[in-house]
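Anyone up for a design puzzle?
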């Protein structure tokens, strides 16, 4: 069984503006990248995907307690270097 050809998920600003409804529809299935001047400028994702990616996964305390660096002997003293002369 042959799969359907994968549709392009990259859009120029002009094409995305002209076909916004299609960008929104496709974003329900996969992220859509909009480029400006040939460079990626933004990504459109579904609200469900955004919520899934931005949900908090525990507290800062839990993160620090589970860190592989916990108990490591780190030198956390601030550096006392002199300021550099920078040409203005």
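Challenge accepted. My sequence:
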């Amino acid at each position: 069984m042959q799969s359907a050809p994968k549709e392009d998920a990259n859009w120029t600003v002009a094409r995305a503006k002209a076909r916004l409804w299609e960008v929104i529809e496709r974003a329900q299935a996969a992220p859509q990248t909009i480029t400006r001047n040939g460079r990626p400028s933004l990504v459109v994702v579904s609200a469900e995907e955004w919520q899934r990616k931005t949900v908090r996964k525990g507290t800062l305390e839990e993160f620090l307690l589970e860190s592989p660096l916990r108990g490591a002997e780190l030198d956390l003293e601030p550096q006392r270097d002199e300021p550099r002369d920078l040409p203005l």
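A detail worth pointing out: The two ends are 66 Å apart (CA to CA).
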